[in-house]
Design brief:
CATH superfamily of chain B: MetI-like
CATH architecture of chain A: Orthogonal Bundle
Order of helices and strands of chain A: HHEEHHHHHHHHHHHH
Number of domains of chain A: 1
Largest sheet of chain B: none
Number of helices of chain A: 14
CATH superfamily of chain A: MetI-like
Structural class of chain B: mainly alpha
Helix content of chain B: over 70%
Distance between the termini of chain B: 24 Å
Number of strands of chain B: 0
Number of domains of chain B: 1
Order of helices and strands of chain B: HHHHHHHHHHHHH
Structural class of chain A: mainly alpha
Strand order of the largest sheet of chain A: 1-2
Oligomer: heterodimer
Chain lengths: 298, 277
């Protein structure tokens, strides 16, 4: 205690504060050693040819390779598609479900629970279950579609559907969280607005467009940001369902990082990691600022 | 939106039917398949089990590969309990100082918290660091990794709550001669209970369900966690769907229990950003 107080005084931040700076220390050590240091090291190691035994500086070779190999470039593209599709669907479906679940219907409690529960279930468990449900010949989904005369596609085996099928399962698992965030946002809108709108004879659509949509904006910001971060980093569901296949048609940056790591190309894997930093930062930070600034203006 | 209107029964029925097909059928499928025998499970259809042999399936899954599943459950429990405990205490300390004391460190801490929330971790360099400090392939190493990656979320959750605790309380304790440690752990920490419970629940679900970090930082047969075992079972039991789904069922039970008892707190934690943004 005495030592800590003395240190605080030494730094010129006044006599020993009841809120000492060393309270940051334990968290700072763990976070610094296992998050900040690796992040900074990544910038260096991505410029090296790096194996278990040694690393050798090679400049931007890894990045050149990353942007030249079609399999790796397509991973970058797939990451974007996956993130945009999942967050777009989560916003639209989450908003629709939230409006449904705050309206006058029975069994709201049941519906909220059943929509939210998949959020808590193991991603690997969900992924493997849907691999079986999406089996092209015997899977439940195509059996059901067959019963109504629709010839279901090979969800995970057809190269043009694999990525989108995984994205759909991601939405199935994650839409409950978006819904709950929207419910919290809609419930916090003061009832007076709806009462005033009713007096003015507003339609349901006007209610939605003029009251819910603008006033639930913080919820939209949260849903968009959360699902973009999740979508851009997404690995477990894709790995459990397709391992990036068939071919490389559902590979994303995160799965490329893992594959290159497994193959022993640590430098290339780390370059992929740096690309992922840049992509996430370049998309999420400006978007966050933009969305929050709009809110302040209103 | 007014509460006096009659419920819309038609919409309710449609919503319930759709929810059953979309959300309940997959879980019913897991349950039914885990009760089936091997041949019927291989048909992959949605049907009532011909022979109920859940106990046989359960024993087969548990005994597989020298009781690996038991080891995995023990490992996952240790990982979850240890990392969430450390994470919550460290995050509360940071949030407390960050909220109460404005100093030149605040902007830096805020940026670091935010980057911890947004930036994807650098995987291979983390392995390099863990090797250097001798914690790669060890449970303590993985625990610390989970702590580092989970801190940011907890700090934000705690900070918002601490803002609602009146400063007069600190002042009273300080006048009574409480040291900073005593003030925090004896006076303030007990008050953080509601938000601590939320943080513990949300992060327990996250750590228990985590697949990526154990995959990278704790490889090796005997170190397996529940999610890794489940993933490996898939390649092993490719033709024994009854066993695969028994395993999925077992992995789904802990979150189900959490959900049944603590639904409200989990929802509160996960939606905390919705109103303030």
């Amino acid at each position: 205690m005495v030592a800590a107080g003395a240190r605080a005084a030494h730094r010129g931040s006044g006599p020993s504060s009841p809120y000492p700076h060393w309270f940051y220390a334990p968290a700072a050590v763990v976070f610094g050693v296992l998050f900040l240091v690796p992040t900074v090291l990544a910038l260096y190691f991505s410029l090296t040819r790096w194996s278990i035994f040694s690393s050798e500086f090679i400049g931007f070779g890894n990045y050149a390779q990353f942007f030249q190999e079609p399999a790796l470039v397509s991973g970058l593209w797939h990451t974007m598609v996956y993130a945009v599709v999942t967050s777009g669907l989560k916003v639209v479906l989450g908003m629709a479900l939230a409006i449904l679940l705050t309206s006058q219907i029975v069994a709201r409690g049941y519906l909220r629970s059943v929509v939210f529960f998949p959020v808590l279930v193991s991603t690997i468990g969900v992924g493997l279950t849907f691999v079986v449900l999406m089996n092209p010949e015997r899977g439940l989904i195509n059996q059901a579609l067959g019963a109504v005369g629709v010839d279901g596609p090979g969800w995970l085996t057809d190269p043009s559907y694999a990525l989108l099928s995984v994205a759909l399962v991601d939405v199935w698992k994650g839409v409950g969280l978006a819904t709950l965030i929207y419910i919290a946002g809609i419930v916090s809108i003061p009832q007076e607005y709806f009462e005033a709108a009713k007096v003015d004879g507003a339609s349901a659509w006007q209610n939605f467009k003029k009251i819910i949509l603008p006033l639930a904006r913080p919820a939209t910001v949260t849903v968009v940001i959360l699902s973009l971060i999740g979508g851009l980093r997404s690995f477990d569901l894709i790995w459990a369902m397709t391992r990036g296949g068939p071919g490389f048609t559902s590979d994303v940056i995160a799965s490329v990082i893992y594959k290159q790591y497994q193959a022993g190309f640590y430098g290339l894997s780390t370059a992929g990691n740096v690309v992922l930093f840049v992509v996430v930062t370049a998309i999420v930070f400006p978007l966050w600022r933009f969305l929050n600034r709009k809110e302040v203006e209103m | 939106m007014t509460t006096l209107r009659r419920p819309n029964y038609l919409l309710s029925v449609v919503a319930i039917l759709v929810s059953v097909v979309v959300f309940l059928v997959p879980f019913a499928f897991i349950l039914l398949t885990s009760f089936k025998d091997r041949t019927q499970a291989a048909e992959l259809d949605f049907s009532w089990p011909r022979n109920f042999q859940f106990v046989d399936n359960l024993m087969a899954v548990i005994e597989a590969r020298d009781y690996l599943l038991i080891i995995a459950f023990i490992n996952s429990t240790i990982l979850t309990v240890a990392s969430v405990t450390i994470m919550v205490v460290l995050a509360a300390m940071v949030a407390w100082t960050l909220q109460r004391r404005s100093s030149r460190w605040n902007p830096l801490v805020n940026i670091l918290v935010l980057s911890g929330l947004i930036m994807p971790p650098a995987v291979v360099p983390t392995i390099w660091v863990l090797q250097r400090i001798g914690l790669f392939r060890t449970m303590p190493g993985l625990i610390m990794v989970e702590v580092a990656f989970g801190l940011s979320f907890c700090i934000l959750l705690f900070r918002a709550f601490i803002a609602t605790i009146p400063r007069e309380l600190d002042e009273a304790a300080i006048i009574d001669g409480a040291s900073p440690l005593r003030l925090f752990f004896r006076v303030i920490f007990p008050l953080l209970r509601p938000v601590a419970i939320t943080a513990i629940l949300v992060q327990s679900v996250n750590v228990f369900n985590d697949f990526v970090n154990p995959l990278y930082f704790l490889p090796g047969e005997q170190n397996a966690t529940v999610q890794l075992t489940l993933y490996n079972f898939y390649s092993q039991f490719n033709t024994q769907y009854n066993l695969l789904f028994t395993d999925i069922l077992l992995v789904t039970i802990p979150p189900l229990i959490m959900f049944l008892f603590f639904n409200r707190q989990i929802v509160a934690g996960m939606t905390s950003g919705a109103v303030k943004g």
